[in-house]
Amino acid sequence: MTSPRDFARRLWRSRRFRILFSAVAAGLFCGVTMIGIPIEDLLIGTRTVLRRQPADQDIVVVKLDDNTLRDLDVDDVTRTDDGHLVDSLVVLGAKRIFFDRTYHFSQTPGEDRDFARTLAKYPGKVFLGARAAPDDDYEEISLFPSKAFTDRAGVVSLMGFNHPFKLSVSFPFRSKGPDGYVPSMSAKLADMETLPGGIFRPDYSIDASSIPQFDYVDALRRKIPADAVRGKDVIVAPTAITFSDFHEMPMQGYLPGALFQVIAAQTLKTGVPVKLGWTPALLLVTAIVGLGVTRRRVLTPWSIAGLVAIVGAAPVILDFYRVELELVPAMVVAGVAIFRSRSLEKVEKATSVNQASGLPSLQALRTSSAKVPGNLVALKIRNYGAILGNFAESVEAELAEEVARRIRISDAGAVIYHEGDVFLWTSALRDPVDTLDHLEGLHRIVQNGIRIEGREIDLSFNCGVDKDDQRLLATRIANVLQAAERAVRDDEIVHVHDTERDEAQFEISLLSALDRSIDNGEVWVAYQPKVDLKTNRIKGAEALVRWTHPERGFIPPDHFIRIAEEYHRIERLTQFVLNEAAKAAASIIAQGHDFAISVNISAQLLRNAGLPGMILGVLEAHRLPPERMILEITETDKFDRSEKTFQMMQELVGSGLQLSIDDFGTGNATIDYLRYMPAREVKIDKSFIQHMDTNPEDLSLVQSIIEMAHSINRRVVAEGVETEHVMGMLRDLQCDMIQGYYISKPVKLEEFVTLLPQPRMSEYG
Ligand code: C2E
Ligand code: CA
Ligand code: CA
After folding, report:
1. Atom 23 in ligand 1: which residue has the minimum CA distance?
2. Which of 7, 169, 212, 673 is deepest in the core (most CB within 10 A)?
3. Helix (H) / strand (E) containing 397
4. How far is the CA of 601 from the centre of ligand 2 (A)?
């Protein structure tokens, strides 16, 4: 089970995940802060061009323009004029009349009275504007028409909201006034019944120039076509330059505010726009990018084009249904992800391709998880450096290409990897003999020289071959490079890697590491308790050597001890274990335990005349009495039953040490041998103990060993006791001591001392 934290940590370590994360974070930032609005406005504006449509002609604008002012020879019309205009429009059949002005101040009392009187004639027909003063809080109406007018006319809000950089204008449905909400002019024109809060974006695809417009003065004089305003709503708008009511309409230019109102009203008539915001597109793109980023190389130019097409086309269609989708946050996600995965790909490519030659690098092969069937070949060019040195320019790519071409002449399917002076490939030739033929052929071809930049050059190379396709690729690469090295050294064209011989090579390297490892603490000693079956107490321990190699990990003792014995390097190791064991035993005994320590001694060492001196020296150093140490000796083929060996054992026993016959039952030890050995103890090998509860033959053998050993007064230890059941059987058989996983595995000294009973002073204390 992996904890969520581990999972998160692993996720975070993945470059691809981090790309996705940063892309989404950037998108979210953009969405939440709305900094993408200007780009959104530009996109929406651009799309309006695709849908250009005429205005529906239901709303007419009457312009109080420069032409009118000139004609009437005034700076502004009077309220009396406005009253006459209303009269004219009513006569012409206008449905409603909206003034795109506020009239919050009084002109002259007479003129105001005229206008109020006119308004009173047409209840419900005329609307006056209201808005916030330019310096006021833009949320709330502060400029309201005079009371004299509002008693007789309706009020509509003229407020609009400029987007950043004036790239668009949105409108509210209503605005807050001194006595509650006031509908916006567009909402009123569209006869909306319920007015939501918030703002909406008019559909600027409506062509402002198609909105019917007439001059104020012509309307006033009723010189406009008879049906121009019949049944229509009219906006009276101050469009003369001096009124400065001009704004930038997306893609349509600098236009009077009234045209915005017409377009906004027409937008609302076709339905209130639905705002989906920025999250849907962001989620969609995140999902797509998430898939693309986690799998390799999905963000190809084609899939990017697809993404852009989907994300770009959806709003074009949605625009027709007045559904607003904000794209910029989603585009930011896609953009960041694409940009960052591109650079990631570059990085990945850089390490997987040899920059000099363009061939895949060895690193690429090492990291590829593919199993490589067949032969792996390494070609090492001996004079590589010299060749490159002969040219002023780098000719590495050309040289590599030439070599690769020649390799492929007879091994067409080869995938070639390159690193420095080595070319490595997996041969498509199944038969190793074919591969050797191929390499020899290649050698002949190349011997005739190859041409680089018009120059004839001599190329000398040697090859290594690895046939063992059951091994891990990393091992195979190491092996084949080693084989090529060997070919160079032995001056062979081809050297085939030989697992067994190179195993020996490995052992030698292990051995040389061993001495160093003893010095720097990688070698240590574990202790496994020996329990007395009569008292059920731990009476001793076997010292077992351990080697934790920093790179190779735990190396089994059987393995390196065999090597140390074979290369006659066991003495140093034994001395180390003896020393550790004696030190441990002395301290345990000092705490009051009745305790003896067992150490394994290779039979080989019994021929070493210095052994007793070495052991006694160690005991001395730790003031451990010799009776407290048991030497376990295995009867193997290395154990020679010579007089010399016998004398050595006698000498050890004579100095007070105890001997134990290890692994009894596995060799060809007999009762005679037992009698001949000056050993106090016999250890029955674990192979007989482990299954004695199920295997009757093992049981009877164990039984007879115990009887036999007891008959000549030897103590019997059973090793490999793994269950309570076996322990019980051994107790019934009068076995003296047991050792095994049931009691404890071999453990570090600190742990071992915790297994001991509370200190109790003994006669040895
Ligand atoms: P050994 O002398 O027969 O040691 C007993 C082995 O049995 C140990 O393996 C121990 O871990 C294992 N063992 C103990 N109880 C059980 C059990 O209940 N079930 C099973 N399945 N195994 C059990 P280890 O430590 O791997 O040692 C292997 C061999 O390496 C030892 O066999 C011994 O011959 C040799 N060795 C270990 N340390 C030294 C040393 O310092 N010097 C020499 N010369 N040989 C050593
Ligand atoms: Ca042993
Ligand atoms: Ca054993």
Report:
1. 720
2. 169
3. helix 396-410
4. 8
> pTM to 2 decimals?
0.49
Does the beta carbon of 662 lie inside 6 Å of ligand 1?
Answer: yes
Residue nearest to atom 17 of ligand 1 (CA): 720
577 C-beta closer than 6 A to ligand 1? yes
* 765: confidence class by pLDDT, cuts 50, 70, 90: very low
CB 26 within 8 A of CB 333: yes
- Contacts of residue 385, Cβ cutoff 8 Å, sequence gap at least 6: 421
558 lines ligand 1 (CB under 6 A): yes
Q: How far is the CA of 719 from the centre of ligand 1 (A)?
A: 9
Ligand nearest to the CA of 686: 3
pLDDT in tens, 553-568: 788 898 889 888 877 7
Beta-bridge partner residues of 457 = 450
CA-wise closest residue to 203 among 149, 273, 152: 273
Q: CA-CA distance, 525 to 542, in Å (whole number)?
A: 10
- 489-501: pLDDT as tens digits: 888 888 888 776 6
Determine whether the shortest distance from the Cβ of 530 to ligand 1 is under 6 A: no
For the chain, what is the radius of gyration of the CA atoms?
49
Distance (Å) from CA 612 to ligand 1 centroid: 23
For the purposes of burial, counting CB atoms within 10 Å of the CB of 692, is it exposed (0-12), middle (13-18) or buried (19 or more)?
buried
Smallest CA separation from ligand 1 atom 40, residue: 600
Query: Picking from 143-152, 490-499, 523-532, 610-619, which range would have the lowest pLDDT averaged per residue?
Result: 490-499
Say if ligand 1 is within 6 A of residue 602 CB: yes
pLDDT category at 637 given cuts 50, 70, 90 is: low
User: In this predicted structure, what is the pLDDT of residue 734?
Assistant: 97
Q: Are 388 and 399 in contact (CB under 8 A)?
A: yes
Question: Which residue puts its alpha carbon closest to atom 25 of ligand 1?
Answer: 544
Mean pLDDT of 48-59: 94
Percent of the chain with pLDDT strictly greater than 70 = 93
Q: Give me the amino acid identity at 48.
A: T
More confident residue, 761 or 90: 90
Tell me the C-alpha distance between 608 and 627, whole Å: 21
Q: Which atom of ligand 1 is nearest to the CA of 599?
A: 41
Q: Which of 466, 437, 464 is nearest to 372 (CA)?
A: 466
- 722 pocket-lining for ligand 1 (C-beta < 6 Å): yes
Of 319 and 635, which is predicted with more confidence? Answer: 319
Other residues' Cβ atoms within 10 Å of the Cβ of residue 690: 20
Does the pLDDT of residue 186 top 90, yes or no? yes
Asked whether the predicted pLDDT for residue 296 surpasses 90, the reply is no
Ligand 1 probe mutation, 514, 544, 636, most atoms within 8 A of CB: 544
Assess whether the C-beta atom of 544 lies below 6 angstroms from ligand 1.
yes
The minimum-distance atom of ligand 1 relative to the CA of 742 is 18
Whether pLDDT at 469 is above 90: no
- How many CA atoms lie less than 13 Å away from 365 in the CB half-sphere? 25
Distance CA 407, CA 441 (A): 10
The protein residue with its alpha carbon nearest to ligand 1, atom 15, reads: 740
List strand residue ranges (DSSP E) for 507-648, in order.
523-532, 537-549, 553-555, 596-601, 629-634
| Rounded Cα–Cα distance for residues 222 and 224 (Å) | 6
Using CA atoms, how far residue 298 sits from 115, 292, 306, 412, in Å, is 71, 5, 11, 30
Contact 514, 569 (CB under 8 A): yes
- The label of the residue with tokens 């202790």 reads 527
**Residue 239: Cβ within 10 Å count:** 25
Which ligand places an atom closest to the C-alpha of 529?
A: 1
Q: Are 538 and 611 in contact (CB under 8 A)?
A: no
Q: Which helix (H) or strand (E) holds 63?
A: strand 59-64
Mean pLDDT of 74-79: 92
